What we know:
This protein is mainly alpha-helical. It folds into 2 domains: 12-138 and 240-276, no CATH class; 140-237, no CATH class. It is built from 10 helices and 2 strands; from the N terminus they run H-H-H-H-H-E-E-H-H-H-H-H. It has a two-stranded antiparallel sheet with strand order 1-2. Strand 1 and strand 2 (107-110) form a beta hairpin. Helix 2 (20-36) packs parallel to helix 10 and helix 8 (154-183) crosses helix 9 (194-225). The chain starts with 13 loop residues before the first helix and ends in a 9-residue tail after the last helix.
Amino acid sequence: MNEAMLEYLEIDSPIHKLTGATKLICLILWSIISMLTYNTFILGFMVIFSIIIFKISKVKFKQISFVFYFILVFLIINNIAIFIFSPYQGVEIYKTRTDLFYIIGSYTLTIEGLFYHLNITLKYFSIIPIALLFMVATNPSEFASSLNKIGLSYKIAYSVAIALRYIPDIQHEYRDISFAQQARGIDMSKKAKISDRIKNSTSILMPLIFSSLARIETISCAMELRAFGNKKKRTWYSARNFEKRDYVAILVLLVLFIISVVITLKNGSRFYNPFI
Length: 276
């Protein structure tokens, strides 16, 4: 099995032992906290806590490294774009201005701007490890059964499970097509120019699209032959009941959520302002 693939691996860890519904609830609470607050201390704590959770899960960084690096590049581009279109966003938020150095035209780098971009970066790094961990530490079948157990229609729950299973399938298919195209002389290596690599990558898209459509038809026929959707309820092979650790995990996230809301209300702002 290729460890660089973003897919579920069975590992004996406290994170993997949580039910899929518990992981989803915790992910939603974690995402809400990250989206609502710009408090540097809360975001910094979330980054450290997410790294600790990732270590506890025993998932190897290599398994998600390619996705992580892609998001890191996106983060850099996003910060640059924010600065280009709104170079003084930090000044407007923190109501002070401390220039560091002049760049060009109307662009001047300020301490307030750097602090604002630091908070944005912390936001991304607080949620990325948890979101990726959710994907690689959640059994799609068990996750679907957990969603159905908490009240979601089994048809929707099963659709979610198929989507989670489809992600690694797409990755494997892309890799196989890429190897086949390279065997035909299409250079996709790092030695090729970026423009050539982008151009050559289009030769992978059409076979990938057609294979995906064929896979969809196969799954649809299989589900239809098994009379999927004819009954109001269904049984689950991977069903699991909530245990003590599930309630503890949800309680921890609820406490963190309440603390972040209290701190935000006490400060009267989503932003921590060290310049006042």
